[in-house]
Amino acid sequence: MTAVFSPAPAPPVDILALLSLLCPEVVRDIEQNWNAPVSDYARHLWRPVARPASGPSIAARSILRDVLHQRLGAIMQPEEVGKALEEFEHRPVIQSGLHCLLLMDRITFDAALLAWLGAVEHGLSAFFGFMGATMTMETIGREGPGWLDVGDDKVNLFGMGRHKLCRKSVCAAGPVSLNSRALEAVGDETDASRWLGTLLAGQDKVFRTAADALTELNENLVADWDRSGMARPVFIDDRLAAAVMARHLDQDGSLLSRLLFEPARRQRLDQALQEAASGPFGRFLPNATAYFWGIREQRVRKLVLEHGHLFELDRPHGLSIPFERLHLRQALLDGVLLPDLFLMVLILAILPRVRIVGGLRQIGYVALFQSILLAALDESTPEERDLAAELQVRENAWGMRVIDEKISVRKQLASLPEGALFPDLLRQYRLQTFAETTADLKLVRENARWRKIGRAEIKAS
Question: Is the whole model's pTM more than 0.85, yes or no?
Fold first, then answer.
């Protein structure tokens, strides 16, 4: 009797066709790992990346490496720094989309877990996570970095008034200290041992900014959840990106200096940005600020660029900075400016040839940013022609809400072994397939931006 074998389940064709319109590299990742364990998908995302080959990408990687070296030197021993940077040279990957929230936030926890899985499956000593720090301390009612979600309730993490929380930005708000009285009130619950002690260990510490507090607390939480120390998280944010951008502006002849300060080149770049924004995928692009954010009175400010100055519109006493290389460089170093999302993705990922792993909006705008850069290049010059050839390969990946648990982190932690939370989850996700975890890409199907793109395609056809 001949055995009958059922074909392996396949991903939904309509969703793959939709994603292929903008980011076919993400589709390839999905197809290759559809029936594989989630841990294998994470391993795939942390696979090696081709080394930079063109002059601009080599220079960008060198700058990023130097700034990361400084960041690692503040938290690691010299031999650990060398090992982490050597690993990064071979597997340069940054998990994005963490939005500077405490890991008790479910979506942030799941994204950090995927990054940890990818690092552990390759035996890496460290992994990098980007925590966007331009958001306000409270985004909407009792949500955002200023709040600790404990499942049934939310604790005001730093004890700041609601008026201050909604007006101050994470990267600038400070000094701060933990609201220990409110945290201790949660300590009566039996499951608090999984996280509360780690937070309260810093109850007497004064942090320079809320971003510094959240970074340190998250590093401590992961260290406690995985006491074997298999992979150490290194969280970076917009302030590190500002240091990287300042280094790019050190030289008058750098690619970014030419694009931003040579009038004809910036006109070409502006045109590429405008065409992308008005195109069929424009809804993926942020409509925010002109190349840089300003920081004034502990708040991030939208800036406009007119008459050679960056300034706050309708704020006569607000920020006003000459749009000149040395002025912008100094403002970045002084903490007055931060690069916008476009520049940040360029300097942390696209130019230095780093794979950036993020959410369903990010896989759209990273692909668009790469196309914008390509349109702005001058291929009559050899180094920009070489860069254009290099950029034909996009290092863009989906890794936020791939794991998408529905119960609160607090409840999830309560069922896991103390001190080995992440290792236990590693065993679980070595058994659960990518298709099962994503519920046949249900999140993509329900995503508003991708749904609108799909409807537009149906009408066009």
Answer: yes
